[in-house]
Amino acid sequence: MKLHRRRFLHLAAGSVSLPSVPRAAWSQTYPARPVRLVVGFPAGSSPDIVARIIGQWLSERLGQQFFIDNRPGAGSNLATEAVVRAAPDGYTLLEATSTNVWNMSLYEKLNFDFVRDIAPVASINLTSGVMEVNPSFPVNTVSEFIVYARANPGTINIGTTDTGGSPKLFAELFKMMTGVKLVEVPYRTTTGAITDLIGGRLQVMFNTMIVSIENIRAGRTRPLGVTTAMRLEMLPDIPTVAESVGGYEAVPWLGIGAPRNTPAEIVDKLNKEINAGLADPRVNARLAGLGAMVFAGSPVDFARFITKEIEKWDKVIRGANLKAE
């Protein structure tokens, strides 16, 4: 059996019901007390904001508080381990993110296995990245950038952040697919990199749209392409990177997971209510305001998506010989 097939089966099986408890009782009584949603990022971050939007919706729909437990640190691994070790009863949930998938390849050893130990509950949203340049840089499209980079190897400075961050990984995917040679300038924070991109020390950078949109609108940076497979409604005139680099797609994502063996009835109930929230115009508008695109589906759909992400980013991370800092 192929590795990706085994991973999908692990994910899909992660929400199997506990056999000793009557099946109907789980969904009828849940939730009977407050539920903890653990987030591996600090308060005020994009993942935290999304978690609070979904938590508020679930609190209103299910009559119990879904409170946010921020546990930043170790690339969100502290939060994930806390949920892995929690009782599989639906009262401790994880805000799963693309970082969980990246960490599987970045870290040589973790105290848990994300695929084995976390059951996919519901996907929530995708967030676009953007490839942007300093306005003085003499290219206007991704294709022109590639031509220029190949003609001037080792002369273009690209800003990145930590090894497990989207600016670094999105850039590595781009380099892998195009073969261009860029000079990496690492930064501790995205803010520092953006400052230097605007100031001209950097020529190019990959960033999340939520971080870049105001600079783009103000003309402080120039977007060459978005990293989603389709153009964005909010910026329809900006092409996708994939229009120049066929197959390129890099999207941060968020969803909800639960400890393995959480009863399937609880997983299904949460999935149904989260999807109802994603279909609600108010919730949809709040997510859109963050530059997020609704990404709803079943637990199996989410498991299948995670499996594809694992295979994709493992090739990028191992190909670039990246390790967690």
Descriptive overview:
The protein is an alpha/beta fold and 325 residues long. The protein folds into two domains: 3-127 and 251-319, D-Maltodextrin-Binding Protein, domain 2, CATH 3.40.190.150; 131-243, 3-Layer(aba) Sandwich (D-Maltodextrin-Binding Protein, domain 2), CATH 3.40.190. It contains 13 helices and eleven strands. It has helices at residues 3-13, 23-29, 46-62, 77-84, 98-106, 114-117, 142-151, 166-178, 190-199, 209-217, 264-279, 281-288, 299-319, and strands spanning 35-39, 66-70, 92-97, 118-127, 129-133, 157-160, 183-186, 204-208, 222-226, 253-259, 292-294. The protein has a six-stranded mixed beta sheet with strand order 2-1-3-10-4-11, with helices on both faces. Strand 1, helix 3 (46-62) and strand 2 (66-70) form a beta-alpha-beta unit.
Which SSEs are present, and which pair or pack?
Blueprint lengths: L2 H11 L9 H7 L5 E5 L6 H17 L3 E5 L6 H8 L7 E6 H9 L7 H4 E10 L1 E5 L8 H10 L5 E4 L5 H13 L4 E4 L3 H10 L4 E5 H9 L4 E5 L26 E7 L4 H16 L1 H8 L3 E3 L4 H21 L6
Tag the structure with descriptive keywords.
6-stranded mixed sheet, 5-stranded mixed sheet, D-Maltodextrin-Binding Protein, domain 2, 325 residues, 11 strands, alpha/beta, 18% strand
